[in-house]
Amino acid sequence: MSDPQKSRCGFCAIVGRPNVGKSTLLNRMIGQKLAITSHKPQTTRHSILGVKTTDTAQIIYVDTPGIHKRGDHAMNRYLNRTARSALADVDLVLFVVEALRWTEEDQSVLDAISRLKMPVLLLVNKIDMVKNKDELLPYLQEISGKFDFTTVIPLSARKGDNLEPLERQVIAALPEGEQIFPEDQLTDRSERFFAAELIREQLTRRYAKEIPYALTVEIEKFEEEGNLYRIHGLIWVEREGQKNIIIGAKGEALKEVGTQARKEMEKFFDKKVFLQLWVKVKKSWSSDEGALSRLGYGD
Ligand SMILES: Nc1nc2c(ncn2[C@@H]2O[C@H](COP(=O)(O)OP(=O)(O)OP(=O)(O)O)[C@@H](O)[C@H]2O)c(=O)[nH]1
After folding, report:
1. What PANTHER family has UniProt attached to this entry (predicted)?
2. Are 275 and 233 within 8 A, CB to CB?
3. Ligand-binding site membership of 21 (annotated)
4. Counting atoms of ligand 1 from 1, which one is nearest the CA of 125?
């Protein structure tokens, strides 16, 4: 039996099919917005390290894109690769599902993680959506039987229900070890990276239906001038039509996206932000492995 007073440190992957609430959970567990979220699937494209340091432990969370069944598109292949490589190197896995639901995609994620031979905690998210709580118990009993989970925790990432017990269980499952990151460090990603993510978040929220994959953001300029960040963002799309949608009549749509993204950045960075956005067309970037890697989606 390991000593509960000893310090613990390790990597913890958050996995699950798209849209189950992985990014929302990560943000909650860190206590700050690190991953972008939207109600459209496939918002997350990068694995993000979120670091939570407590008195006795350091938990290094790895957020993964949803694992997809169809691997025939370059972006899907990239997403699958990132998710699987994030899994190879962790100490435990948080497997997130949605309360009262179990889909084929959930099963294929479980198949992938059950081969890894590491502790898996099953997190049943969105319990705030369950109107009739009597339905929860039989559901929990049924899915508990699908694998030898370390524990099963019903929770609501959005409302923050049951997250303290979750953190305790995560710490208990970590290996003993000294912390890897300084305690004030929340992530290993740069501010530039988050600037691009916050712009992409606004665009994904508005246009995921019209422009499913064909959108990415590159930060061309990121300069600090006293209390001000001067940021230039380039939005890449695949077709002229998509560019027109994003710019909108008289540039109004792009202006709104810019205003929202700027507000989010000012909260996130705690700085004044001057943001300028441009939209450019690059044909078929999302199905071209070379273009993907130049835009930051490489291995
Ligand atoms: N009602 C409810 N909604 C939630 C909860 N957690 C997340 N959501 C919502 O579910 C949607 C998806 O959440 P994300 O955190 O982006 O999901 P994800 O699993 O990271 O999605 P991908 O990036 O597509 O893999 C968002 O609209 C969230 O607000 C919850 O506990 N309750």
Report:
1. GTPASE ERA, GTPASE ERA, MITOCHONDRIAL
2. yes
3. yes
4. 31
Cβ pair 251, 276 in contact under 8 A: no
Q: Which of helix, strand or coil describes residue 191?
A: helix
34, 67, 75, 158, best to mutate for ligand 1 pocket (most atoms within 8 Å of CB)? 158
> What does the pLDDT look like over 61-109, one tens digit per residue?
886 655 555 555 665 665 566 666 667 778 999 999 999 999 998 998 8
Pocket of ligand 1 (CB under 6 A): 16, 18-24, 37-39, 41-44, 65-66, 125-126, 128-129, 156-158
270, burial (CB in 10 Å: exposed 0-12, middle 13-18, buried 19+):
exposed
Domains of the chain in sequence order = 8-173 (3.40.50.300), 191-294 (3.30.300.20)
pTM passes above 0.80: no
User: 64 a known binding residue?
Assistant: yes
User: Ligand 1 centre and the CA of 57: distance in Å?
Assistant: 27
Report how far ligand 1's centroid is from the alpha carbon of 179 (Å): 29
Distance between CA 111 and CA 147 in Å, rounded?
10
For the segment 231-270, what is each residue's pLDDT rounded down to a tens digit?
Answer: 999 999 888 988 999 999 999 999 999 999 999 999 888 8
Atom of ligand 1 nearest to the CA of 24: 15
Q: Nearest C-alpha to atom 17 of ligand 1 is from which residue?
A: 21
CB atoms within 10 A of CB 72: 8
Alpha helices in the chain (DSSP H): 22-30, 74-88, 104-114, 136-144, 163-173, 191-207, 240-247, 252-269, 289-294
d(C-alpha 13, C-alpha 15), whole Å: 6
Interatomic CA distance for residues 119 and 134, integer angstroms:
29
ipTM of this model?
0.98
Report the separation in Å between the CA atom of 178 and the middle of ligand 1, taken as the mean of its atom positions. 32
Q: How many CA within 13 A on the CB side of residue 207? A: 26
